Amino acid sequence: MNWQEILLIIVILGTVVSGIILLKQSATKFHLSDEQKKKVDARKKELEAQEKCDD
């Protein structure tokens, strides 16, 4: 192996590892307020009602 192949392997491994770290950092959970949870639940019920009407 010459130095160019070693450099290429290091760059590829760095890219993969940095991608995994970025995904881990961006996968944090978010917290909804009670009002936002109610809106989500209401919208979910509306969509379920529409699906029943469509069938």
UniProtKB/TrEMBL annotation:
It comes from the Bacteria. Keywords: Membrane, Transmembrane, Transmembrane helix. InterPro entries: DUF2897. The chain crosses the membrane at residues 6-23. This is DUF2897 family protein. It comes from Thalassotalea eurytherma.
